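TICKET #2291
ISSUE: user wants both folds in one file
ATTACHMENT 1:
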Amino acid sequence: MGYAQLVIGPAGSGKSTYCSSLYDHCVTTRRRIDIVNLDPAAENFNYPVSMDIRELISLDDAMEELGLGPNGGLIYCMEHLEENLDDWLEEELQNYLDDDYLIFDCPGQIELFTHIPFLKNFVSHLQRRNFSVCAVYLLDSQFVTDVSKYISGCMACLSAMVQLELPHVNILSKMDLVSNKKEVEEYLNPDARFLVSELNQHMAPKFAKLNKALAEVVEEYSMVNFIPLDLRKESSIQYILSTIDSCIQYGEDADVKVRDFDPEDDD
């Protein structure tokens, strides 16, 4: 069985920085991971790229040849990749062993993981190759300083969870930039009454029923909670990696080494 993280989230949420920090951490701990770039618009990387969609198609080429804009060009690139899963991706995956660990660094266009079926079909292809996949959704911690932005982020996150149907780990990124971490802690495991109270203070009374309904959706889907990520702390990266490993059962099939403490029989 292979293992994979699908790193998704809005543009600017820190996905590539997360991948880079995760790679550095694994180098330090002598653990091997391979990072795959699925963003046809990417230019610079702070980690070695093991597989790169730009070898198949780039956003600049799609925009120039087809006269598309950035969003239309990116969707075309993803559709082109989907058409070549059995060729390009299959050939690339042959370079990896059954127990290899892949990190897929995805584009930040939110429609790719909310309602366009590309990523769902991509995951299905990996699962047919016997990969255990976890979706890792990054949300900028600056988002949760405003409760309305937080609700918006939760809805986008929930949409991705429903669309992909995968084990899911939600991360609040850029915690090193948060000055008052106590304000953020209240949003890690959201409570409906707290959310409704905060929303009603910032919005007109006519939105009270809508606020209550949205807060209840967040609470009833109790899967929507977040783990803070502070890249300055190795312990923070290790905790998130351990959580993801548990979701995809990484290492559970490893042989347990048992030391024999029984004394040897005398001849």
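ATTACHMENT 2:
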Amino acid sequence: MTHQLQLCLLFFVFTSLTHAKSVIEPCNTSDSCPSLLSYLLPYDSKLSEIAYRFQVNVSDILAANSIDPVAVPSLANQILPARSLVKVPISCPCVDGIRRSVSTAYTVQAADTVNSISDGFGGLVSGEQVRSFNGINATNPLTSGESLAILLPCICFNNSNDRVAAVYLSYVVRRGESLGGIGQTFGTTVAELEAVNGLGQPGVDPGDILAVPIPACSSANLNWYNESLIVPNGSYALTAANCIKCTCGPTDLNLQCAPSGIVPSCSHLQCQGSDLFIGNAYVNHTPIGCNITACVYRGHNGGKIFRSLSNSSNVQCPVNQSNKAVPPRASPSSNPIVPFVILSPSPSPSPSPSASSNPTMGMNNTNPRSKQTSNTSTQGSRLPGQARLFYILLPLELALCFIYIS
């Protein structure tokens, strides 16, 4: 009987560990919200191929990773090496009461298996999820040329983290990584990662998918007409038919908008009654500070771009500025090709991952709101789906064990 009990408990432990943990966010609204995927390239890929794989625009990937499209017009054909880490922006609808993103454009290739498909998506979807969601079994095997639905993790939490605007990144844990190393990479703390993901202890396993909060700039308080934007810090967004580029950070959470330079014929960029264009400012030094007149973006409607002059008196002066017009803020990237993409040193990650050993494309280490403590009151609502399933199945499995023994 002792041997039977050991076998039963071993089965129980094995079944509780066979599925990676991930956050499941319940929802009850049809509104979509922005989110990010951390995609570790399984093989060399063009940006256009990555965009096609996830059904997003190349320009959106460029924006999420702070790559300036003006510098290299043919950037869509730029080849990124395997094991580069790329941020992929997605929109999260509410599907059957759960926040998730569904891609329906993956076409099965001749040599595909559910596991190779999982690998192709960087582990963001498991082979078992591919199998179960598409009804793949012995009587309904994978068929070359068929189209599969791929469920991708999607977390929003109302795009807020402790009442600060945030965009959540779904990050696949790699072998040898810890919460401390992941937190260091993204400028957050172990306590915050535990709270957001509902973890009872600071332990993660390879394949787990963590929700990582990325502080963001929001247009909620900027009095824009008919438009709103949430932009993760260290990235930008294009708006107004790509005429306007709005940048966030990376060292602050103030949204800065200026002409993008991508579209050659954009009108309504100059503020009336001045020689300032959107993103320009005139600085006048005073004995106690500076008076600043700026031409600011106010949203758009159809082909019209709204803008207005904003006046600030006796505020802190910009660094190294005299009485002159200040040009729009430059692109957050100083490298026009791939400002943050670097190969991992080897396929085998370091036992002690850090920001320097796991460099990423567009994943800035600077978190302007990094803190040492975190509000843990949300752990109940953010308990990983696997953890909830674990506690539901625990009594049933134990009961079956004792029935088996008797």
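RESOLUTION: both attachments delivered.
EXTRA DETAIL ON ATTACHMENT 2: The first strand starts at residue 33 and ends at 40.
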